[in-house]
Amino acid sequence: MTTGDDTAGTEQSRDDDAYALDRKTVAAILYAVDIEDRDKLTELMEPLYAADIADLLEQINPYDRTRLIRLYDREFDGEILSELEEGVREEVIRVLSPDVLAEAVRDLDSDDVVDLLEDLDEPEQKAILGVLEDAERVAAQKALSYPENSAGRLMQREVVMAPEHWTVGQAIDFLRASDDLPEQFYHIILVDPRLKPISYVSLGKLMGTRREVPLKDIAEEDFHVIPIDQDEEDVAYAFNQYHLISAPVVDQDGRLVGVITIDDAMIVLDEEYEEDMLRLAGVSDDSSLSDSVATTSRRRLPWLAVNLISAICASLVISQFEAEIDQLVALAILMPIVASMGGNAGTQSLTVAVRALATRDLTGSNVARVIRRELMVGMLNGLCFAIVLGTVGMMWFASPMLGVVIGSALVVNMIIAGFAGTVVPVVLDRLGVDPALASGTFVTTTTDVMGFFIFLGLASVVLL
Amino acid sequence: MTTGDDTAGTEQSRDDDAYALDRKTVAAILYAVDIEDRDKLTELMEPLYAADIADLLEQINPYDRTRLIRLYDREFDGEILSELEEGVREEVIRVLSPDVLAEAVRDLDSDDVVDLLEDLDEPEQKAILGVLEDAERVAAQKALSYPENSAGRLMQREVVMAPEHWTVGQAIDFLRASDDLPEQFYHIILVDPRLKPISYVSLGKLMGTRREVPLKDIAEEDFHVIPIDQDEEDVAYAFNQYHLISAPVVDQDGRLVGVITIDDAMIVLDEEYEEDMLRLAGVSDDSSLSDSVATTSRRRLPWLAVNLISAICASLVISQFEAEIDQLVALAILMPIVASMGGNAGTQSLTVAVRALATRDLTGSNVARVIRRELMVGMLNGLCFAIVLGTVGMMWFASPMLGVVIGSALVVNMIIAGFAGTVVPVVLDRLGVDPALASGTFVTTTTDVMGFFIFLGLASVVLL
């Protein structure tokens, strides 16, 4: 029997070759593009899924990308467009010949069309809208009228509903007789006479139940309705938290207007994760590997600029102790350790807090307890390392008092780090600022400045 | 028409009150527990979903948690158990009275039972297995025989299949006549006579198609089969990449043995994200907000210890220039800036690379180009800040040469940071080590040590 211990029993490890683009395939494709062999290219691309072709296009350089698309021409599937990341997608749209683009766009579902349109500049939006049929165009424009990042943009308008009083038999007959069921649906939404969703029935359950049973009897217990103006982040959270496969969307009057399915929610969830992770490191969250040098540079600068200011502030603090450092150079040698340990501990607390805020695990109900815990952990770990570092300092510079000073400074800085690392993101979150975006600077500035100040200050008082 | 610009048009922002535990509700629940009012407690808990009750249990302190569970008693739903995070779940299992636990476990689906069991210690595993019916116990033991973190553990054994030559009519009749369809299923898997999956048909499409049409005609184009020993990380990647709702699992002989559904894949995906994010900050990935002070302290220590060693190494480098710092204290004041900027730039590159490796966007096909880009970006941003910092240094200490020295040191360190930040995770990944886990130390040690070395070294040569 395998236990929960990670080292017991056999354990799988990730196979990097599964699903990653095969380097040989990519090389063969680029070669076919080089020698302009359309048949070979089509043959190589044929077994690839749209998502993989999108990855391929993202990973090759812009010059090869253009040539590949021009050679591939009419084989270009609309689905590839919806899989491409924003930057590359804009580029590809400009490269595609107008009729191939038109064909590709007509392939797409309504929610993918909206997703495509919302990132484009106006002239390109007009071009694409012009290509759609009237009904599709109106639907797309309606979707674009909803606020960006809202449920209205994510949803598909095609929804399968049934009156709440129907039986299984009536529902099945209705579905079987229906001409235009959506491509993807997993539930029938039960509605009242005013089109308000009451509950939903999964197709699986429907299939396995006798005709005379009322739909209400097999309706799902848990029922979540998404308001049309809800932020997509909240939508994605709900899908994740409640394990939804699809959820009905209602307008301000509570009437059913569409449905959001799990695949769209997952894309949002994915974006949110990436956003948090990149923002914590100060990287603009619309960054991508295919950005040019200039774009990448521009996207990294702001954070670095803020950190430069922060570093200069720390240096200003150090300069207050110029005379002391001059007297005892050991201070200059040891001071980065206190600041650095504080920074690391602060980053640990910060990351935990930012993640917990995103998953709504850190709330008013436990924030006090978590802050208390972080203070205690800071003290505990601080003491632990204070002993180590104090001993090192003592032995290195043959000065017991120096050891005591650096040990004490470390404990204090690590307590501060634990505190700031939790309080700063919580406060920013309360103020409506994304904690992932701004906390890092506040926390590391605090630990650096305090680290230097406490160590050098204590040293100047005690030793000199 | 709203454009892709984030500032144009109205924009939604996250509503922290949506789906988060209402503080008043939590307070009322704790009060009911305090005065031991079971009816009130049941009334307050009734409208909450299992996932939210799990969150509640995770957020209150252990003492209240025990009292709440004891008071709630038989109302305790098995689903809550599967929603709880590992640490709290073990605690809850110990607190629940044996018959309530037995009842709760019998509520669960087979894959949730396995999920529950695999994290437990052996005596507790035995206790739970003892509670199950024979068929369920055997199924659970079979699942546990697969390697941890493999598809075999994730899958549910109940799968709906049909012979590949059937028509829609035959499939529908089969489903309608079936007694024991699974709780959740979205597709019918088409199999050949040797039980090898050929394709699958979504229930939605089935419902809308005439009886005489062969199933093969409405089968999905894209078809992904999961080998039973595949790592769950690869499974989750496939679900995300190809927007799967469910996927059949096959054994070594290619025979259909189960199916994995999107909700299980999403849990894995969520864990992977959290793992990467926490690991980058040096926090053990099984950490949680409900850990005690001692546990949290223990889980943060290793990374801090490694960083202490790294910081001491940097100090050793500084100490080589003790004489120079003694001569020119400005060096001590300015040196942390070079190291810190290098660390920040390195962390930016590192985070981008780790994320891209996880999403398989950084592969052999583009790694050379990305490294080149990082070097150029390091140089560009380095030059930019070198000018700023050089000017600051020059003016602050009235020394043009000092300005040049610090500017040059900064450029070099930022180029090194960009390089290390990308190369280190890629190399670790190739060696089969999780880049999120180990890269941080290597990269920041490099930028610290090199930062101090280059700046102080250059200064000692040029200025002194």
TrEMBL record, chains A, B:
Protein name: Magnesium transporter MgtE
Keywords: CBS domain, Cell membrane, Magnesium, Membrane, Metal-binding, Transmembrane, Transmembrane helix, Transport
Presence of keyword Metal-binding: yes
Gene that produces this protein: mgtE
Principal place of residence: membrane
Subcellular location: Cell membrane; Membrane
Family from the record: Belongs to the SLC41A transporter family.
Transmembrane segments: 375-398, 404-428, 440-463
Subunit-level organization: Homodimer.
Protein task: Acts as a magnesium transporter.
Pfam family, one: MgtE_N
SUPFAM superfamilies per UniProt: CBS-domain pair (SSF54631), MgtE membrane domain-like (SSF161093), MgtE N-terminal domain-like (SSF158791)
Keyword ATP-binding found: no
Start and end residues of each CBS domain: 219-275
Mode of membrane association: Multi-pass membrane protein
Highest taxon of the lineage: Bacteria
